[in-house]
Amino acid sequence: MTHPQPRTPDDVHTRQILDLVTRGHAHSRSELASSLGIAASTVGLRVQSLIDAGLLQEDGVGTSRGGRRPRVLRPASDGGSVLTVDLGGRHARIGKHDLSGALLEVRSVEVDLAAGPAPTLAIVCTVFDELTQHDTSPVRAIGVSLPGPVNVETGAVDQPSRMPGWPGFRVGDHLRGRFTGATVTVDNDANLAALGEHRAQFGLSKHSITVKAGTAIGSGIIVDGHVHRGASSAAGDITHTRIDGSGDIPCSCGNTGCLETVASGASLVRQMHDLGRTDVRAVGDVLALARDADPVATTLVRTAGTYLGQALSGVVNFFNPHAVFLTGSMSASEPFLAAVRSRVYEACHPLATQNLRIEAAMTGADAILHGAARQALENLQLPGAAS
Questions:
Q1: What is the Cα–Cα distance from 51 to 73, expressed in whole angstroms?
Q2: What is the dihedral sign for C-alpha 168, 169, 172, 176?
Q3: pLDDT attached to residue 2
Q4: How far apart are CA 24 and CA 240, in angstroms?
Q5: How wide is the angle at C-alpha 345 spanned by C-alphas 343 and 347, nearest 5°?
Q6: In whole angstroms, what is the distance from residue 174 CA to residue 178 CA?
Q7: What is the mean pLDDT of residues 67-94?
Q8: Cβ contact 175:182 at 8 Å
Q9: Number of other CB atoms surrounding residue 22 within 10 Å
């Protein structure tokens, strides 16, 4: 896979125009020129290229502000679709979107990542085919979420745990060979959850952290509406933050006392087993017991929230985000959420928390699909763009 070339000004303007129109933030050429601060002639050329490519359409008339009533721009009704997949260890959520990124349909299927990439992706592609079997327009883009560190340039996972056969496998190239002409982007689940939630809340402005707290823990950082990956795509990985007083439980990274060993859903199940509660099989069982006011489960859930808040407090002090969003199964637990808030507000400087929001993600289980669609659309191959 070749590295993308630097984007030209025309390419940047085209992407900005497509984004503004598909998100409903501009409806005419004059509004685009005003929003972007560029010449009407430049807007006209870029809009026409998008119309010619079948991505936008122009019809009807808008409200006049003096002079002719403007033609209304909108995503082309038959411009194609965007497909997304959120791959988990045992299941996959698969979505179909229109060119605005709106989620039209979701399917859930069982998969087994341990079976390897080819069998897993074959199941995904079968569902993709089912979702688009009656379409007359093409699949424009595909967004893939993987539950491990991802090299976004190669589209492969990098040193994942519990994913035999996946390291080095170029998921993007595999899907491009199956869906010719489609843009394919691949990223990890935490980054895409962060992107999906942030765009739903703030659009292309402000800063946030989204933590995916379920069987495992991951987080993504958004700066000015875009994913911040860091020098080696490891930014936001609070999973292996050392937690004071957490003991010396070995972690998959080789260290002991990491956040994941005491605050993840898997750790809660293990702790319940250590206490003789062998009837608990999954994190959902622990959360159900906490909802029923089981004292042991409630204490463990609150303690996990306190540990996560401890890890986040240093990040909040340093990064000073506008919001911390929580997604994943544990985010639905009020004791967990309350404990996170309490610890962050207690441990952080007042300036870092005076306007800070800490809340469950509004996009819920679809956060990753929304983020995958948005990222795929932003990397869509456009007319006249460098590839």
A1: 9
A2: positive
A3: 37
A4: 40
A5: 65
A6: 7
A7: 86
A8: yes
A9: 22
